[in-house]
What we know:
Blueprint: E1 3-9, H1 16-30, E2 34-40, H2 47-54, E3 61-65, H3 72-82, E4 87-90, H4 101-106, E5 114-119, H5 126-143, E6 155-158, H6 159-162, H7 175-180, E7 186-191, H8 209-225
Parallel strand pairs: 1-2, 1-4, 2-3, 5-7
Antiparallel strand pairs: 4-6, 5-6
Helix pairs in contact: 5-8
Amino acid sequence: MKYSFVIPVNNEEENLAQLLTEIDPVIGKLQTPSEVLFIDDGSTDNSLKCLQELRKPYPYIKIIVFDKNYGQSSGFDAGIQAAAGEVIITMDADLQNNPADVINLLKFYPEYEVVIGTRTRRNDSIVKLISSRIGNSVRNFITRDSIRDTGCSLKVFKSEIIKKVRLYHGMHRFMPTLCRMYGARVKEVPVSHRARSAGKSHYGIGNRALNGLMDTLAVRWILDRKLHYHIQRIEQ
């Protein structure tokens, strides 16, 4: 199995059928065995039932069910660790990511082990756009990175590298930065961004600002404290 799509889901029942109709032709273009892992992150609507029904027309679907809501980082981590593919593709379930962009991201793989989407013409409120720009600037300053859009979930990873990354709450936004610790080359590629047509966002400014700063400081600590050494030889 070459490709694994990893998609956390929390109360997205109105978007799932449409999402699969857009992912299916992408899998057809890949022309290789693929899987789509949905992680039901404690949904309280009919998301799980919808996914179970969608397994009939789309047999490549696999479902991981959490016993309660744990958050996006846990959803991505569970899916990544369970994925069988050599290449892991992450995205959101809210239809704001366009699955068709996956093909363009894959053009830069395997030259780059991590290929990430940078949203153009974002369909968000002015407040969210400003807060996102400030957040990205602060994260890059503290982590000494240059990722322009840490909030875009549409990403491509070499499986053996992303599986090495240990995630904590809120740290899914730093996956490319953490992958660099393991020698990954990172490429940013422009992708489209669509307005949410159904459901509501679960992640607002208020619940991200302070936690985001704490996460950023934690990542800086990890980057500074990671062991780096090379064994010249072992004598016996």
